[in-house]
UniProtKB/TrEMBL annotation:
Protein name: Peptidase M42
InterPro entries reported in the protein's UniProt record: Peptidase_M42_aminopept (IPR051464), Peptidase_M42_dom2 (IPR023367)
Gene3D superfamilies: Peptidase M42, domain 2, Zn peptidases
Lineage: Bacteria, Pseudomonadati, Pseudomonadota, Gammaproteobacteria, Oceanospirillales
PANTHER family assigned to the protein according to its UniProt record, in alphabetical order: AMINOPEPTIDASE, AMINOPEPTIDASE YPDE-RELATED
Domain of life per record: Bacteria
Length: 359
């Protein structure tokens, strides 16, 4: 059973825009929520840091950017992550035509709204009528009705809200759901540090985080990065409550930290899957069919470990989801509950949460 205060928090956060490259207004929303819960909040370029009384007791990180559009000219809108990343994916490969076609299909007829990137002030709403690949610029162009007067540089967010569909939470969950979880920890007395990073979807967030550790971290720093993990359908996602990893395409994760999570899952009766093992098994089947294998994926943590020369280490905790990068991304309530349980265990917080007082 999820705490109603967590659900209310998630509902507020999911309605606050945070398009890739235009996250400042969302940082302001987070700052208010965190300071109301007693956290010391400090802004740095690309990362907001919230700390309790014992900052190095436990450290978590969540990225807070979400997919959206950006106005790039008169009545012209492009996919924000591709613009921010200079049309490369998270492995720095050029964005393929196949991926761009998927994106155009994914958001057709979605309702959107423009906002001021610093203040979050509403600038008008519209509907995506069409999307196509511009052959001259090799980039995605979206046609949006209703936002003809918007100036270049204005971010455009998808109109979103949290809904409950049976036993699942639904909305643009990546990655606001895990950010909400870290904020919620401070309601429960969390004394460690939570990092909220920008521009993960364009592959830049790890640099902001690594700069903080180079300036303020200890000699070794154990970090738990929280995120969602996509699966092709509900049946596949529901085979486990949580997703762990031993590695990604960039680096191997800290074995002791990963073993700790595995032991905590066992103690609390939480089923889990190692995503790297899952991908390797799927790849073996693809190879046997003569098809190309998939990448293990690139994560924020893997990039930090690879670049930090031992300064930062750790592992990841992920919520299995379906409908990846759509407005109908969903996670089971049981998975979200298990996720919060393991976060509390890592942070040495009581498993049983106090119930809110209703006046």
């Amino acid at each position: 059973m999820l705490n109603p205060e967590f659900i209310d928090l998630l509902k507020r956060l999911i309605r606050a825009p945070s398009v890739v490259g235009a996250e400042h207004s969302f940082f302001r929303v987070l700052q208010r929520e965190l300071e109301e819960r007693g956290a010391k909040v400090t802004w740095y370029e690309g990362v907001l840091v919230a700390q309790g009384a014992n900052p190095f007791s436990a450290m978590f990180s969540a990225h807070i950017d979400r997919h959206g559009l950006v106005c790039t000219g008169p009545n012209e809108f492009q996919y924000a992550a591709f613009v921010s990343a200079n049309r490369t994916d998270l492995l720095n490969n050029s964005v393929s035509e196949q991926l761009m076609n998927k994106v155009t299909e994914r958001f057709n007829q979605e309702r959107v709204y423009a906002y001021e990137p610093w203040s979050g002030v509403y600038r008008g709403k519209g509907v995506i009528e069409n999307g196509y690949i511009c052959e001259f610029r090799n980039n995605l162009i979206f046609e949006v009705s209703g936002l003809e007067a918007v100036d270049a540089g204005t971010p455009v967010a998808f109109e979103d809200s949290l809904t409950t569909n049976g036993d699942r939470l639904e909305g643009q969950l990546d990655n606001v759901i895990t950010a909400a979880a870290l904020v919620h920890l401070f309601s429960l007395g969390f004394k460690g540090t939570a990092f909220f990073t920008a521009q993960e979807e364009s592959g830049k967030s790890w640099r902001y985080l690594l700069e903080w550790f180079r300036r303020f971290g200890g000699t070794t720093n154990r970090l738990f990065v929280v995120d969602t993990s996509p699966f092709p359908d509900t049946q596949a996602a529901d085979q486990q409550l949580l997703v762990l990893r031993e590695k990604d395409a960039n680096a191997s994760f800290n074995a002791d930290s990963t073993a700790l999570l595995e032991n905590l899952c066992g103690t609390h009766g939480v089923s889990f899957l190692y995503k790297d093992h899952y991908v390797e098994q799927q790849n073996q089947k693809l190879i046997e069919k003569g098809q190309s294998p998939h990448s293990l994926g690139s994560t924020e943590l893997g990039r930090i470990i690879a670049a930090s020369n031992g300064l930062v280490d750790g592992t990841t905790i992920q919520i299995p989801t379906t409908g990846y990068h759509t407005m109908q991304e969903s996670a089971s309530i049981a998975s979200v509950d298990a996720f919060l349980t393991i976060l509390k265990a890592v942070a040495n917080l009581p498993a049983q949460e106090p119930q809110p007082n209703h006046l």
